[in-house]
Amino acid sequence: MPSNSIHSEKLSLLTVRKSLGVAFFSVLLTVHLVAQNTDRTTQIHVEQGWLAGTPGSDSSVMVFRGVPYAAPPVGALRWQAPRPPASWRGVRTADKFSPNPMQVMVNSYGPWTAEYQPQGSVSEDCLYLNIWTSAKSSKEKRPVMMYIPGGAFTGGSGDVPVYDGEHLAKKGIIVVTINYRVSVFGFLALRELTKESGNNSSGNYGLLDQVAALRWIRRNIAAFGGDPDRVTIMGQSAGAASVNYLTASPLAKGLFVQAIAESGTNGVIGPGENLKSAEENGLRFEKAMRVSSLAELRAIPAAALIDSTTNRFHFLPIVDGWFLPKSADEIFTKGEQSDVSTITGWVADEGSFMGNYGKVPAEEFREGVKRRAGGFADEVLKLYPALTEEEAAESQKAWARDMSIVSTYSWASKREKTAKTNIYTYLFVHPQPGATEARYETFHSSELPYVFDNLDKSPRPWTMKDTAIAETMSRYWVNFLTTGDPNGKGLPVWPAFKDAPEKTMELGDTTEAKEMMSKGKFELLKKLSGDGEE
Length: 534
Description:
This protein is α/β, with parallel strands linked by helices and 534 residues long.
């Protein structure tokens, strides 16, 4: 290009700049600041180094997948308390979920179609978490939810599609889902492990993983726009049991301020034994594996250990003397738990995945009632008649639903004696539409797509009613995560347990706090649950 042409172009550019004046440079400055803000959002610095996230399906939300919160629990670290993760150089791309904890993977089971199941592969190297945030600055201090997956302590993962945190993140919450060790990797107790621990305990590694995740969140979540002083732990099924154990454990004190336990707060998923009996179970397992030392057991491939536990050995949380110095019930009774506001409840048909749900022969049901109810059997059978097979089927379902309501009441009333914070109880009663509805009704975990406002993650024939329920439930949950109280403008009032102990919030086709059964039935079932003095 001739030099005079270059000179002419420079003069033209200067003329344009002069004519645009301040406005031109304002535009440039705005573009520069937006670019800087985008960089801050996609690249976050945590203790271990820089992380690069990726946009969600809605670009206002950034997702950080597969973030290590502890060192890989492999080799010599198998069956040890979690260690801090290693640092890294450069920028770590956090765009993929990590492998799931070691477990037997299934594509679907009963009512739980693929969107309820872990995705991808399995590995012992599994201690990672995932973060959804729409915060634009580390100064925003948004409430944080750490979600603990269910899976009967034998499976589960933070990558399950119905746990996707994007929609809650758009509502102002920082959502974190975690992996933790399960089955033999999470809960094996052995005398050798107890001796080497330094805490005179073993087992409960999966629960210690959850504490490690909470500690990582406390140190790092501010970088994602979260408030480390407003962390809520939330879980369903085994995740709800975990919430109960974390609330009871002295190791988790100060790491969270609220709790949500769905279908499992007062369940029986561990701790079913103490350290001594768990060590004996571990010794039987060691012998079954034909090894005579911990070193040999640690040398066995992970897949072989999982294969050997299936249907033969069960490893669950225990009273280990360290994470749980005594049973959760004892800790709550003495008021030694973390006193945090709590939401807890059940779905209407928790046991519908079992083959005998509503199918126990009428005579067998009547005999079962007589064994359980003793001198109250005649009264119970008047309330739950079983003269025909059809009548017995409906009575079995009603009995199960009513006992879950009464068990929640019993647990809440005991908690109320030592707690100063509020507890809110619910029963979810809306069956999901589609192929599972007739057989499984309101099945265990069916509330999750509504709570996460994730109907789009599940290929079911949703209706406008489902959309409305999801909006209502997610608003209750977001309100609670934000303030410790689910109530808010435009929502039916959800009373705290202390204000209406015999009422439960019904969530579903209708949303209201109500007495779920007659007073006479309620008093009778309280006696059967061992809580007749309340």
